[in-house]
Amino acid sequence: MICIFTEAGGSSGFGHLTRCLSLYDECVSRGLEAKLIINAFSELPDSIGERVVHLCDWLDLTFLQGLINSGDYAIIDSYLAPNEAYDLISRTCVNAVFIDDYIRLSYPKGVVVSPSLYGDRLPYPKTPGVCFFGGPDYIILRSEFLEPVCIKPEPTIKPANSEPSHFLITMGGTDIFKLTAPVLSVICKEFPDSKKSVVLGSGTFDKNVISEAADKSTEFFVSLDAKKMRDIMIQADFAITAAGQTIHELLRCGVSMIPILVADNQRLNIRGLENLGFSHINALDKTLDPDAINWKSLVAKTPRLAPMTFEGHRNIIDILIKGTKL
Prior knowledge:
By secondary structure, this protein is of the alpha/beta class. It has helices spanning 15-29, 61-65, 83-92, 180-190, 207-212, 226-235, 246-253, 267-275, 295-300, 312-322; strands at 2-8, 34-40, 53-55, 73-77, 95-99, 110-114, 130-134, 166-170, 195-200, 218-222, 238-242, 256-261, 284-285. The two termini are 21 Å apart. It has 2 domains: 2-140 and 310-322, 3-Layer(aba) Sandwich (Rossmann fold); 145-300, Rossmann fold, CATH 3.40.50. α1 packs across α10 (312-322). The chain contains 10 helices and 13 strands. Strands 3-2-1-4-5-6-7 form a 7-stranded parallel β-sheet, sandwiched between helices.
């Protein structure tokens, strides 16, 4: 049995769950028995589907001990689990993979994977019995973004100075810095003939203000599932986005982008883009004044990206069940 431990909802959001769903699907596609063990702080999204799920407080070590057996394999993707939980799982299971984004803990025996563009450059300490993997080869995409449909057909050749025909604007589930409205307003002024798809999260509070910033070419979407988000990305040819995991999906779909840093840890994503050779991607900061930016020049200097392939879901399961000597 492959036990996938994570949390969902509350201040943690659903990012961990999203990654774990992809890993679960990879297990099932190989005929491996798997289950999701979720510490849920709110109602789970419909995207959970008919997957095998056990809802419980697995951070309770006494309870956790009864969830795992000596023949199990484990994956942990958590911001909350203490060292004691990792230690117990490491001692009990055949092999364990710990998903880590920023060197959160000193991990016990097992495999630490940093699934980000910059994960292979994080200064993890050399620890006996612990192997570290990271970087683009371990990025985990939602299952819907792994389908061949994400690869766009070759576009019709456009003049070098042509403007994007379809903008995607997305600032995450909450848009805590309220960037969507001012960014949308200036994009509407500078690119009146372009279509604008604006994706809002359930936690976006100033929807009325955002609506007032729109023009007749603007369409709004709220709390999209992965398939609908993928379809919009495939249609778009330019994105203005928070610099979180969404940039991985945009890279997969080959969408040129301007990322905006809305959290300090997203700086690693931008450094990762630079290491991939995308130094032309100009990241903006959450303190930006949209009206002070020459958007036409900025957009014109951002070349089109070719779609990328990410195999993190496969590579992580390979490491889990085959060991680190692949």
